[in-house]
Amino acid sequence: MQKPSLPKGTRDFGTLQMGRRNFILDTIKETFQLFGYQQIETPAMENLSTLTGKYGDEGDQLLFKILNSGDFAKDVTEDDLKNGSPSILPKVSEKGLRYDLTVPFARYVVMNRNDLVFPFKRYQIQPVWRADRPQKGRYREFYQCDADVVGTDSLVCEAEIILMIRRVFAKLGLKSYSIKLNNRKILTGIAEAIGEAGKEGPLCVAIDKLDKIGWEKVKEELSQRGFEEDSIQKLVPLVNLQEGLTQKLDFLREFLNSSETGLKGIQEIEEALTILKQMGEDLAHVDFDILLARGLSYYTGAIFEVKVHGVSIGSVSGGGRYDDLTGVFGLPGVSGVGFSFGVDRIYDVLDELGLFPEESLQGTRLLLAYFDQKGFDYALSILGKFRAAGIKAEIYPDSSKLKKQLEFASKKEIPFVGICGDAEINSGTLVLKNLKTGEQESLSLEKAVEALV
Amino acid sequence: MQKPSLPKGTRDFGTLQMGRRNFILDTIKETFQLFGYQQIETPAMENLSTLTGKYGDEGDQLLFKILNSGDFAKDVTEDDLKNGSPSILPKVSEKGLRYDLTVPFARYVVMNRNDLVFPFKRYQIQPVWRADRPQKGRYREFYQCDADVVGTDSLVCEAEIILMIRRVFAKLGLKSYSIKLNNRKILTGIAEAIGEAGKEGPLCVAIDKLDKIGWEKVKEELSQRGFEEDSIQKLVPLVNLQEGLTQKLDFLREFLNSSETGLKGIQEIEEALTILKQMGEDLAHVDFDILLARGLSYYTGAIFEVKVHGVSIGSVSGGGRYDDLTGVFGLPGVSGVGFSFGVDRIYDVLDELGLFPEESLQGTRLLLAYFDQKGFDYALSILGKFRAAGIKAEIYPDSSKLKKQLEFASKKEIPFVGICGDAEINSGTLVLKNLKTGEQESLSLEKAVEALV
């Protein structure tokens, strides 16, 4: 008999983890809905024609492909076999597991474009699969949690993303974090302003390493990537920029005054922040980061990234504005803005900071316990009263010693035990014991319900 | 540019469907939790060694297999190619998509047996995949929604399953349905009593067709399956049995008096129903169906199946008791009882009976609308008040005519629009319009919040 095991890079979620994950996900869902976003789901499997070519060569390699059903190898020839896997693949597989939620969403928008109401706000919380090399904190199956609004370029959306992030984090008890904010047009403008128009890609890749390797090494890399010495020198004031929002904006207006695109980027940042103020909101947690460059090739406007302070975990949320979600499926001009929460990382952050509520999050609140058959019968007769009041309640189903029942409650982290002894049966009451404090008192059933609701 | 499409047998769920599905699933989850069940999740992918051989030959064929990553064909030889797909399969695939939630649960129990608290009550709501031929109402990806308790043979569990089904159906507004209840031991007893011990399998397969093909044809089939004429004749009183619970039990006690197992089955049915009464519950919807035979090979005690009256849709819930969940993974003797809700079918039933709440189930409740920039600014400034009160609210993000905003609200099934005109701006109020009735009134913001909470 072989011992069962899990595929590499996959996980089970037990009851404790699921309670905690649901705590996070419910908070996120409630927030999305409060802002008018509605849920959709797409299938785990997509046609390979939908997935392939959307994530670069490396992404294509990381797609999990599904073997065709039935006699899958019937069209494979000896020549295919000689040519190897790439020749065989198209003959044995036409479907793959989704790699993210963005491409399925784009497909969904295109296929349903005549029925959707634009601006269309959707959220989607589903697992995705990547054949990555498994390592600590990186899994082959993990949940993504995306919200996007498409069909509008209003900066109200950007302002509301900041509000949604702040609401989720407040509800989760996270206090110390930054919502880094930038705009792709500013990065484009910087490249133009230093005389390297169109090279914001390599510029950002290099600048991104500033914290890790320092300015001298970044300069070297830029030089290797073909940036002129003169251009690199022009970056110095940017790299050293450390002041507040107004100062940064003032500096940039000067620095980018030759770049129409750059100035547009500044204007968009200002407008989003103005909308926040109009909404009666402050700029708490908002950190305008001129060099933030997340997912550059895709974004065309705002760029977001959220980092929690004091933990070793990377960004826990991020996103940005794009102006062509669905062009690859033949529907050009669909612009929008989206962001996502990294559920696994938020889980780790809350765990590291001890922010999960102590009480079991989805578990039973009351176990009815008894000494003998008479007590069991009594417990059965009163159990429904607690459930009718919405109290998660159960009875230890097999006749057993009270000690065993209490151990069961304790192991299952059930906070209260209602003990049914002879005195309770005769008076129609219950001894309610708080397992954490050890306190117990005799209560009428009504009072016991009140105490637990 | 190729038009994107979905793989055969898969579906997207749009916002309306997701609202309705969540209405069903939230009701089920809440009920499971009220009875002490807690959620777990297992990965979509399992090792083929875990899945294969658990669902019969046909099931093995219907497993979706995942192609190994990288150079998957490197070990395939020309001989394999000549021998065809069955020889190639083990060399190119070692993982598959889960086919149900029972086998992954069994694997989970075995892998975590030292950490779980028994009796262990878990629920699990996740998609499963089967390479079935797609047809109306049958999909290649669909959700299962299972609850099981393992590590106890208490009949309290059976009684509580009846209560959970009734609670879910009551919350969903379903009134006319039967919870058919039987016990595998009774079926075993019947086979013994008619002199065909051990043949309850073929007996039930034939009897199952009674409604469709009639008794004469069933007799023929039993005869073809090797049942003696004499045995078949002994079934007549059973087939004609139509009376109430007490009468059925009395009859069976007589009919099965030679079968120890059969009598045990009767006793189990009686005990579960006695527990219901002890819990202060009636037998509403419970229908003791002596010939109910669902999933015979697997169940050893109670058998459940739920049918809604007046709809063309098959059983919407079912389950039963088993005494060896995990033996196949080397851990014998784990008994339990489980049942599941068929979410797709419940959806279809509620749809057919018009039982979904009319109001949008996860959608926005209030759209703030405006005539001009001044109104837009005012709407922005008051939006947060509604959200702070938990009211799902949004603003049309792009400057546009009021008519367009109202159309947007109407298409998105937003029930209320808050109109921000000059009078409202000056008095700090809002015209709250009910889009369904057309009624509107001018309200202070506080009153508007109260009206919508």
From TrEMBL, chains A, B:
It catalyses: tRNA(His) + L-histidine + ATP = L-histidyl-tRNA(His) + AMP + diphosphate + H(+). One of its GO terms (molecular function) is ligase activity. Coiled coil: none annotated. Its EC number is 6.1.1.21. Gene3D superfamilies: Anticodon-binding domain, Bira Bifunctional Protein, Domain 2. Its main location: cytoplasm. InterPro entries: aa-tRNA-synth_II, aa-tRNA-synth_II/BPL/LPL, Anticodon-bd, Anticodon-bd_dom_sf, His-tRNA-ligase, HisRS-like_core, HisRS/HisZ, HisRS_anticodon. Residues 21-397 form the Aminoacyl-transfer RNA synthetases class-II family profile domain. Keywords: Aminoacyl-tRNA synthetase, ATP-binding, Cytoplasm, Ligase, Nucleotide-binding, Protein biosynthesis. It is found in: Cytoplasm. Homodimer. Belongs to the class-II aminoacyl-tRNA synthetase family. This is Histidine--tRNA ligase. It comes from Algoriphagus taiwanensis. The lineage of its organism: Bacteria, Pseudomonadati, Bacteroidota, Cytophagia, Cytophagales. The gene is hisS.
